[in-house]
Amino acid sequence: MKISRRQVLKTVSFSALVIGLTPRIAFSAPNTVLSIRTGSQPGGKTRLVIETASRPSYSLSYGDKQLNVNLSNTNGKTDVKTTLAKGTLIKKITQIQNGSTLQVAAALSGAIDAIDKKQIMILEPNGDNDYRLVIDFKSGTGRGITSTATTGRAATQQPTQKKEETKTQTKQTQHVIVIDPGHGGKDPGCTGKAGTQEKTVVLSVAKKLKSKLDSAGYKTYLTRSNDSFLKLAERAEFAEKKRADLFISLHANANPSRDMRGFSVYTLSEKASDEEAQKLAESENAADKIDVNGFEQFSKDIRVALSALQQHAVAELSEEYANSCAKSLNRASIQQQKGPSVRHAPFAVLRSTVPGALIELGHLSNKNEEKLLKSDDHQNKLVAAIVKSINSYDFDV
Description:
Elements (H helix, E strand, L loop, with lengths): L30 E11 L3 E8 L5 E6 L2 E6 L2 E2 L5 E3 L6 E9 L2 E8 L11 E4 L7 E7 L22 H13 L3 E6 L16 H18 L3 E4 L9 H10 L4 E8 L10 E5 L6 H11 L14 H9 L3 H20 L10 E4 L10 E8 L3 H8 L1 H17 L5
């Protein structure tokens, strides 16, 4: 079990320069709690909903039969509306103001396990509600948590000792990563002028990446380990079945301009960030047209996943990793394609509840980069950068 959902916030009020993953702290106006309510969910789950005036920045901590939601830069209100439903694990809710941090302390009727990050959502305002932090959990044995466990962005303001404790907890957890070498079998992907096929390059990089991640203590799987063809639906479903914490799809690019070169990183979005991203998504999605009818082939679980994808949890976690990956590749002096470091497009292979990104390792249409992508040295350089991005990705908070 993971400690808590990864806190990812997009700052829009500071300036365009900090758009991305900067937590809202001193420079933003204090948030306010508007209501707190509980309810029951299928499978014996308890739902806690905290409604706030602006997007919440939070962390979770656990006590003996207690769940604490720590809201940074937030003011509590003694007259806030609190509604407790019958039949849940929550017996009482108390607001505790500690400087600029508000702790919503939920007294529980029994022990719970650490809450999986996929069980936490931040919902955007709609007609009758403002921002809502939604947390689902059920009874358990207290696995993965201690009485002093503290997580979330608030940890960046805690003493060094707390940071070290969090890092230690992360290392003790074997996180699951699914690596997807794009194309394969009857679908070669793009082909360089010297005859280098995309499917071959990405499989080679994927195997090297798996080896390094296995050595680093991760539990990793390849969607394909040989020259076989897989439907895009099968790739997404594979990650779901393995209960992956992160999904990485590897590809190599091609461009009508032979001068174009460099890596690019993509996350899923129903609307492409630019025309080039849209064309690339259409090209990659076309792999399924070889011998499948469409996404009606998805299992019921995957259809549920497609709906769940709209939740901000997965999108923000994916954005978090994608930015980390792009930075790591840049720091390794690997050339980036001109334009934004992270782009967005409707890639079918990324449609799941697993956070992930699609990495275009370079351009086979560029003769110099084709040579690089074939070389072990450059492949190892790419792998080392991706491993660093995964090591710096905070799975647990």
